[in-house]
Amino acid sequence: MKFFLLLGLFFVVVWLIRGGRRRGLPGAPAQAPVAPPGGDQAASESIVACLHCGLHLPQSEAISGAAGWFCGDAHRLAHDIAQPR
Q: Where are the beta strands (DSSP E) in 32-84?
């Protein structure tokens, strides 16, 4: 029983020490900021809004229409029917 109590106390101490580093407490080493996945391409891609529903999405995933950008073919067609030229 004494062994399990000491083992449990050991794990609690290790957990507290490791948790202190994550929170950035004084004396803990500073961590470098994490770069977003995709690197520069994700940061330089422009965001467009669907003219039909207003959804914001990356331009590479949007569909171009005569009036602007859309989130899908269904919204492009719905906008063309609602707004005839």
A: 47-49, 56-58, 63-64, 69-70
Domain count, the chain: 2
Answer yes or no: is 36 within a domain.
no
Confidence of residue 44 (pLDDT cuts 50, 70, 90): confident
Q: What is the DSSP string of 16-44?
A: HHHHHHHHT-TTSPPPPPPPPTTTHHHHH
Which tokens sit at 80? 């063309």
28 or 73: which leads in pLDDT: 73
Same domain, 85 and 47: yes
pTM here is 0.48
